[in-house]
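Figure S7 source data.
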Amino acid sequence: MKIAVYPGSFDPVTLGHLDIIVRASKLFDKLIVGVLNNNIKSPLFLVEERVNMLSEVTKGLPNVEVQSFSGLLVDFAKNNNANAVVRGLRAITDFEYELQMAQTNRILSEQVDTIFLTTNIEYSYLSSSTVKEVAMFGGDISKFLPKEVVPKVLEKYNHKK
Ligand code: PNS
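Tokens for the predicted 4'-phosphopantetheine complex:
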């Protein structure tokens, strides 16, 4: 059984992430979306909220599972018997960081290989940070996020006002 992990912060999940999830789920028997529980960054959403949003938007994909993780990605992959990590590449600017992570992970564990999917051109400009900035200043975020996620982001910024 071919199992892959798709890790990220997903703060929040965007249409770009969802596109990668749908495409990667067709390439593997099982895809585990790993939501980083990172205390260093200060995310907009709690890890449980991010997991719940991802579970909601992937509920139609039977071979996709959502879990949170902390610690090393390679350990999370190994604990789930996954030997591939999927990452989306939007543009050349992503490449250096992604290459560094992939090489580091490869040295940490030879069992885990990183597979890059090129982001759909429609979403190549999209990032969770940009979406949060647009939302913070009252812009329309409906073209960037799964429809279930839009009200959750708006709610956060309304509460912050
Ligand atoms: O969505 P992001 O923030 O670009 O995802 C980054 C992520 C979660 C893939 C990366 O930070 C990660 O794997 N963190 C876990 C810690 C780890 O394994 N670090 C060593 C590899 S650089």
